[in-house]
């Protein structure tokens, strides 16, 4: 799994990275369609990327994958059984303005805390750049689990930052994946806005 299959832009690509790449794209395709299959795929791709990131000393990203596996179980349950504030089955919706500010503030507060942890507790050579998409991804995952449209804006920011992080590490196939993720974040944002509009019309 960790032996090089081919070289991309001077860096080896392993079977592990290739399989994680394919499964992660499948997961996002399911997210776009609000298909619960996305969550078990998220668990599998997270396990693979956790292994990959650990080998490249991206400890924040590697630890994040473990959290993703746990949160994916919660998200799966939310999509199958979750209820909105009105007691109805969970639908695509959005945060209120004050909630949005609280989410941004919590994410930005957590960033330096995680960066300092990585600085002092690991041999990471990119602790601050590793920490930002780590905390942003936690935010995005919880928003996604509750079917909140703002998850896509969060993922767009996370994915753009992650492109820079993985480029520094020479993980070029993963760089390509996160470029695709960034583009799909815009697609998902638009698709979920249409779903929200459709739900609003059906309730009118």
Indicate the percent of residues in helices.
Answer: over 70%
Tell me, briefly, the overall form. Answer: globular
Side by side, the strands of the main sheet go 1-2
- Provide the domain count: 1
| Secondary-structure element order, N to C | EEHHHHHHH
Radius of gyration: 17 Å
Taking all residues together, what is the mean pLDDT?
Answer: 87
Any low-confidence stretches, pLDDT <50, length ≥5? Answer: none
Describe the protein's architecture and organization:
The protein has 204 residues and is mostly helical. It has one domain (13-81, 106-203). The protein has 7 helices and 2 strands. It has helices spanning 15-32, 38-55, 59-81, 97-121, 127-145, 150-168, 172-203; strands at 4-8, 11-14. Strands 1-2 form a two-stranded antiparallel ribbon. Strand 1 (4-8) and strand 2 (11-14) form a beta hairpin. The longest helix has 32 residues, at 172-203. The radius of gyration is 17 Å and the shape is globular.
């Amino acid at each position: 799994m960790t032996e090089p299959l081919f070289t991309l832009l001077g860096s080896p690509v392993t079977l592990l990275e290739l399989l994680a790449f394919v499964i992660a794209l499948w997961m996002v395709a399911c997210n776009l369609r609000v298909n619960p299959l996305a969550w078990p795929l998220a668990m599998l791709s997270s396990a693979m990327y956790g292994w990959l990131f650990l080998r490249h000393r991206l400890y924040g990203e590697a630890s994040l994958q473990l959290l993703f596996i746990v949160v994916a179980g919660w998200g799966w349950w939310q999509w199958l059984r979750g209820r909105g504030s009105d007691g109805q089955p969970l639908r695509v919706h959005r945060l209120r303005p004050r909630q949005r500010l609280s989410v941004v503030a919590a994410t930005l507060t957590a960033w330096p805390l995680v960066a300092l942890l990585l600085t002092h507790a690991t041999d990471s050579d990119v602790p601050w750049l590793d920490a930002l998409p780590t905390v942003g991804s936690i935010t995005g995952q919880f928003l996604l689990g509750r079917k909140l449209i703002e998850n896509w804006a969060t993922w767009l920011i996370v994915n753009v930052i992650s492109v820079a992080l993985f480029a520094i590490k020479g993980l070029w196939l993963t760089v390509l994946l996160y470029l695709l993720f960034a583009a799909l974040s815009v697609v998902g944002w638009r698709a979920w806005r249409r779903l929200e509009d459709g739900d609003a019309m059906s309730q009118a």
